[in-house]
Amino acid sequence: MYPASGALATTTERGTWVAPANRVTWTPPGYAHSHRIYGRTDVRLVVVPLELCGELVAHPSVFAVSPLLREALLALTDRSEVRPGVYERLRAVVVDELAVAPEQSLHLPEPRDDRLRAVTDLLHADPGRAVTLAELGRTVGASERTLSRLFHTELGMSFRRWRTVLRIHHALIYLTDGRSVTDTAMECGWSNPTSLIEAFTEVVGQTPGRYQAELRDDAK
Question: Which residues does UniProt call coiled coil (predicted)?
Fold first, then answer.
């Protein structure tokens, strides 16, 4: 699924992936999944035949969209097949491009442990909340040390990193909706716009301002 404009979230049992307009999501066969669309989003869906799925990664992911991949996706979903075999050839281009595209997964894994799930549920409900892991532990009845260990063993990242990715997910949604960088920073829990810009650039690979500029360019 490709959000030609706007932002799209894909959720499986492994967690949630967010794709802004410069990325495309891939969900392999066998994964129950759901999608959520944010703002004025133009989503394109391309189904990959089962016999071609082996050429792509075997797990849900998000990929960078090259200019060629973008045009192939738009052509596949914008027009009717005027000549026999056109769709098949375009789809082969899409698969070839996805096979070599770098993974850029804004992946937020979700826990199985009940104590850790209680903590992540609290953070999902209020991602901008300024709270320490020790404070969250007291709320859910687990020690800070136990929760810290669970973040690393179950989710593969620290509490701070997980919360940062969660906040980036929300920041992408706010920026897609046209919120300012300053308002987005305040809503998502950063103390100032500079902190948001630094975190966003490190995770997404571009500044919030550049991201919004590309959204405006795509909408033209």
Answer: none
